[in-house]
Amino acid sequence: MVATPIGHLGDISRRGIDTLKHVGLVAAEDTRRTRVLMQHIGHSGCQLISLHEHNEATIAPDLVNRLKQNIDIALVSDAGTPLLNDPGYLLIQHAWQADIRVVPVPGACSITTALSVCPIPSQPFRYVGFLPNKAGARRTQLEEWLQMPDALVFLESPHRIRSTLADIASFSARQVMIGREMTKQYESFLVGSAADVLAQLADSPKGEFVCIVEAAKSVTAQFQLTRVLGALLKELAPTQAAKLAAQICGVRKKEAYELALQLAKQSHSI
Question: Fewer beta carbons within 10 angstroms: which end of the chain, N or C?
């Protein structure tokens, strides 16, 4: 399992280069992109085979048979670390079942790259991959995840990033960071409230985005506030419940009131 650069070809590790040069076959999500990398490391004669979401079910058993014949195989995705929103799971599953050793060769990953420069609280974090394509499902998931105290980390396409930021702005006042084209010439990051980031974002942005929504300021306090409000809302209106909860938990009335409205909305929808 060889991690490959997410942009800058110089980010391939020495171990990654050595591995790609010495295996008998490279299974690649896109052989065209992998061929560019192979040329960069000076190894253009290696056999490449395509393995992607549409053919993995049929290709994986054949690759396992080759592994049983002592042919070493490297698996690479288009960019970054394999299996993180990329094909390869079925191959790995078959290999484990056949008692074949699976070796990680770590390296670049867009998620950890973004987290490494993130100036907003992002520990602990919950990584959820891509959000649902449909607007209704996306809003439902976001509303659920933003009730949790963890930082939320996800990937988003350029076609949906603006609507996703608008959804976040309607649910939460938490800060966000979005990163695109990381390690490439036009690398950029935007930080601020979801509404502020949306205002700074181009109308037709390009490139896949890594998005981070900050963790609650205090995980313990957030859980306590949620529990207190949940009890008070059974007897009181959101305004009264929020006022008392703010005094009990030592938080701002606005924060308690926003959460009270969200909890009341959830209880009415059940």
Answer: C
Q: Are 215 and 151 in contact (CB under 8 A)?
A: yes
H-type helices in the chain, by residue range? 14-22, 31-40, 56-68, 89-97, 110-116, 135-145, 161-171, 194-200, 219-232, 238-249, 253-269
Domain 110-213 has CATH 3.40.50.300: no
Task: Please list, in sequence order, all residues whose beta carbon lies within 8 angstroms of the beta carbon of residue 115, skipping any fewer than 6 positions away.
Answer: 122, 125, 153, 212
Could you tell me which residues are beta bridge partners of residue 28?
Answer: 50, 76
Question: Does residue 266 register a pLDDT over 80?
Answer: no
May I ask the CATH architecture of the domain 9-97? 3-Layer(aba) Sandwich (3.40)
Q: 152 has which bridge partners?
A: 126, 213
**Where do runs of H (alpha helix) occur along 130-218?**
135-145, 161-171, 194-200
Separation between Cα atoms, residue 28 and residue 259, nearest integer Å: 46
User: pLDDT > 70: what percent of the chain?
Assistant: 96
> Any residues with CB less than 8 A from the CB of 244 and at least 6 apart, and which?
228, 232, 236
In angstroms, the CA 189 to CA 179 distance is: 4
Other Cβ atoms within 10 Å of 133 Cβ, number: 10
Residue from 162, 168, 183, 166 nearest 117 by CA:
183
Give the gyration radius of the chain's Cα atoms. Answer: 23
Q: φ and ψ at 103, to 5 degrees?
A: -115, 125
Q: State how far the Cα of 253 lies from the Cα of 245, in Å rounded to an integer.
A: 8
